[in-house]
Amino acid sequence: MGFKVDAYSDIGTKKSVNQDALLIKQAKAAGYGNICMGVLCDGMGGLSCGEVASSAFVNRMDTWFKTELPQLLLDRNITEPLKGTADISSTGHLLTKVEGQWKKVVTEMNDRLKVYGNENGIRLGTTVVAIIIVGEEYMTMNVGDSRAYRFNKKQLAQVSHDHSYVQQQLELGRMTEAEALASDKKSVLLQCIGASESVSPDFFTGKIENNMNFLLCSDGLWRKLVEKEIMGIAPQRNGIKKLTEMVMKRGETDNISGLIISI
Length: 263
Fold this sequence. Notes:
This protein is an alpha+beta fold.
């Protein structure tokens, strides 16, 4: 199984710094075939040095992919199939271990960024949305309101959970979708890495299907798009750039970033 990838990030029309950061990594492992990881972070615009927080987390995940993932793949407790491709049990076992390590990375980076902020007299934080695809399965992780979507030509589903004030109010039935879109608190987060006392990322897993696409994006991209636009444009050549230009024309002023992994 191969992957087609695309990514784009834009500073936007009003910000002086792009506080978004993103990463796509691919590798091939005996017994598992091709592996792909995507990470996207949105440094908090209302805090100082959001770009430091987002780039620091992306760099930590890059290090994890290069040094810690190979150790998991070589773990003797994971039985390597003789056919050269991972079976469900071995892939599921691997993703369980990845989830445990990603939780530790989130806690580590939350603590490191808080220490950095205290030492420099600043506040900084970042969202994160990440995905790893191994064999016939995928797993996403998110903190904050950067999103992951899974889609094909017929349907789209969000495979992340917004940690935001408006999402909380929606779930409590205190706010409608229209009110959420118009709310002046739509950028208020309930947790982010570096600015929260503790962080609890959400994880979602699922099976890979033919012609499936995964989009990771900051709120600057998804806020002014509808599902059909994502489904129709994102998989195109330079699709993320096209969507970026579209939302900018609609008045989006935030940093705008996205990456797509197509199977």
